[in-house]
Design brief:
Mean pLDDT: 97
Bound molecules: NADP nicotinamide-adenine-dinucleotide phosphate, guanosine-5'-diphosphate-alpha-D-mannose
Distance between the termini: 35 Å
Number of strands: 13
Helix content: 40-55%
Shape: globular
Strand content: 15-25%
Largest sheet: 7 strands, parallel
Low-confidence stretches: none
Structural class: alpha/beta
């Protein structure tokens, strides 16, 4: 059976991808960082995974900042597919830690690509890079597609542009099957609690349950193309099953403001958001991405991909999950 190596396996996307690959019969190897807490909630709560499938999941200590661990693991495991999902993924935080963000999100990618080549896997192992719509930043055309010029607006996005082109370069220079998914924002009940969507759905649920009084936010005018993370993880796998390596934009094609997300989330629990939202400058960014919206027609044409879950459905499913957790204490 095939094997996969996933960096960022403990994150939102890593957990969905792990479920998918285990269900397909893969042996899954995940890179995990050493931390003082062993809390790996998303992996502990994988859904619909049998005991037999779980036995095919193996975690290994390492770090995208540590070449030795990557070289050792790739040499030992020789996976058929590598999914590079690890990153310092918070855009606002990247302004506070630009050097660290660049080391992990940019140089880390080259460390991993070189580890694959050093293990003699350059011509056999398929590589997926988690690129981002943040690379379009101050977008030069709407909607954005694979050919749209990048204009990154944060250290996070600059690092992602570097990794995107490194992935293209390893394909062109070394003949590697390496490709990038340029994924627009994707959310789920497993989304980190300091990204705006989850922060808001969690707050709406907690306020409704009497556990919180208000929520503090930054820019409500920014507009994003929000899709469902579970559907986006499936695309990562699909991209590596194509005959040739290609980069794809993955998006819903719908664009909504943060304010619309807030209004929809509070409406889902029968509350008027104006009564519960406060502003704090702390959550503003030195340079903002005002609006991004993607055109995923290439993915539709090449492998029939179309999103099923869009804005309203997504907000509701996240609010419902957070409300259920608040009410049951789980
Ligand atoms: P996430 O939930 O924040 O997960 C990030 C993962 O990276 C975690 O497993 C984290 O481990 C790991 N990580 C961070 N630094 C690392 C390091 N130095 N070495 C090894 N692992 C490290 O992110 P996500 O939402 O699942 O996103 C997955 C990837 O897609 C990221 O690269 C992100 O930038 C990119 N992306 C996301 C979106 C989106 O809307 N979600 C859109 C486009 C692109 P810990 O658990 O130990 O922190
Ligand atoms: N996080 C956060 N917290 N964002 C806020 C807040 C707040 O309190 N208030 C307003 N916002 C605005 C931000 O200024 C931004 O314009 C928008 O909400 C979305 O912010 P995030 O949810 O943090 O997501 P992001 O778009 O910056 O980045 C996410 O999506 C990218 C794909 O485009 C991350 O997952 C990135 O890793 C990913 O690449």
């Amino acid at each position: 059976m095939p094997s996969a190596f996933i960096t960022g396996i403990t994150g939102q996307d890593g957990s969905y991808l792990t479920e998918l690959l285990l269900a397909k019969g893969y042996t899954v190897h995940g890179l995990v960082r050493r931390s003082s807490s062993l809390d790996r909630g998303r992996l502990d709560n994988l859904e619909d995974v049998s005991d037999e499938a779980r036995a095919r999941l193996h975690l290994h200590y390492g770090d995208l900042g540590d070449s030795n661990s990557l070289y050792r693991l790739l040499g030992e495991l020789k996976p058929d597919e590598v999914y590079n999902l690890a990153s310092q993924s918070h855009v606002r935080v990247s302004f506070d830690m630009p050097e660290f963000t660049t080391d992990i999100n940019a140089t880390g990618t080259v460390r991993l690509l070189e580890a694959i080549r050093s293990a003699g896997l350059g011509k056999t192992t398929r590589y997926y890079q988690a690129s981002s719509s943040e690379m379009f930043g101050k977008a030069v055309e709407t909607p954005q597609r694979e050919t749209t010029r990048f204009h990154p607006r944060s250290p996070y996005a600059c690092a992602k542009v570097f990794s995107h082109y490194a992935t293209v370069n390893y394909r062109e220079a070394h003949g590697m099957f390496s490709c990038s998914g340029i994924l627009f924002n994707h959310e789920s009940p497993r989304r980190g609690e300091n990204f705006v969507t989850r922060k808001v759905t969690l707050a709406a649920a907690r306020i409704k349950a009497g556990l919180q009084e208000y929520v503090t936010l930054g820019n409500l005018e920014a507009r994003r193309d929000w899709g469902y993370a579970k559907e986006y993880a499936e695309v990562m796998w699909r991209m590596l099953q194509q005959d040739s390596p290609e980069d794809y934009v993955i998006a819903t094609g719908e664009c909504h403001s943060v304010e619309e997300w807030v209004a929809e989330a509070f409406a889902a629990v029968d509350l008027d958001w104006h009564d519960y939202v406060r502003f704090d400058q702390r959550f503003m960014r030195a340079s903002e991405v005002d609006e991004v919206v993607g055109d995923a027609s290439k993915a539709k044409r090449d492998f029939g991909w179309e999103p099923q879950v869009k804005f309203s459905k997504l907000v509701k499913l996240m609010v419902e999950a957070d409300l259920k957790a608040c009410l049951t204490g789980k």
